[in-house]
Design brief:
This protein is of the alpha/beta class. The protein has helices at residues 13-50, 65-81, 94-107, 123-132, 156-171, 187-200, 218-231, 243-255, 272-280, 292-307; strands spanning 54-59, 84-89, 111-114, 136-139, 150-154, 175-181, 206-213, 237-240, 264-269, 285-288, 315-318, 322-323. It folds into two domains: 52-148, Rossmann fold; 156-290 and 325-338, Rossmann fold (3-Layer(aba) Sandwich). The chain is built from ten helices and twelve strands.
Length: 339
Amino acid sequence: MMSWHLTSKNKPKGVNQMRCYRLNSFRIWIAILILAVFVSGCSLEEGEQDNKITIGFAAMNVEMTWMKFAYHAMHKKAAELGVELITYDANNDVTKQAINIEDLIKRGVDAIITDPVNVKGLNSALELAFRKGTPVVAFDRSAFGAPYLFFVGSDDVEAGRLACRFLADRLNGVGEIIVLEGAIGSSPAINRSKGFYDEINKYPEMKIVFKKSGGFLRDEGYRIMEEAMAKVVSFDAVYSQNDDMILGAIEAMENAGITPEKVLTIGTDAIPKALIAIREGRLDATTQYPISQVEIALEKLVNYLKTGNMPQWKEHLVKPWVITIENISTGDFYSIIQD
């Protein structure tokens, strides 16, 4: 009996068509499945991007020396936390800073972090943020009476006290002092002044013979020191509420023939150039303005946005310390001057 097997040559036409149809259908379903997985992945990635936390940084002035380091620390921490940071620089103009905050609110950022130019100038902008439901955190500088979530800074009152105690110790409680104050109306200047002037009252034989605001600027420190030397017959020490001004003042004294060993000097912030000046013997001391406040403020803000949990404190002050040649390696930026 003859057996008949279907081959590619002798299969009925309908069978071949059916198999081709099934094969094409299978291929189509595979293509659809791959496309669905691809689209799902893209949608997930887009969704993750859409859900990424965006924080507006309404900076006071990113060109000021300590703020340059704060700016880089802020962006580095934002990258570590996986959040987007949008920076607006007010260039030390409180009106511009208020406008920047209003613009960030309009952009719909999840929160705002800021270091107010002065203690009162941002109140209206921060009240608007509160009404619009945009959380605001302040660091470095506070805004008195404004509705912000919390504040992280350095204990500037203590920094003023420490500077005064350093001078009192080195001068044995007797001497005439020139004071270079910071930007008028800023919380660091207000609080450092309070700490220094309250503490100096404990030393009746220590006198302030000249004081003036230099706005935290090096050029102003130089100019004011020239003015002070023209008006003051003698002085034993210079206290500056930041390092930029004291470095300007030292330059003015050196140009006037006053060598470092003749006058006791102390600044504030412990920026790299101040540490170098200490190492070179041109500056006696500075008070560390901790950079860690930047990281703490942003980390706590992001945690609040993710969990809704507020820190256990409304105000967190990082303790400063005096840096001299003996403990120069404790400075936040000491590693920079090693390069």
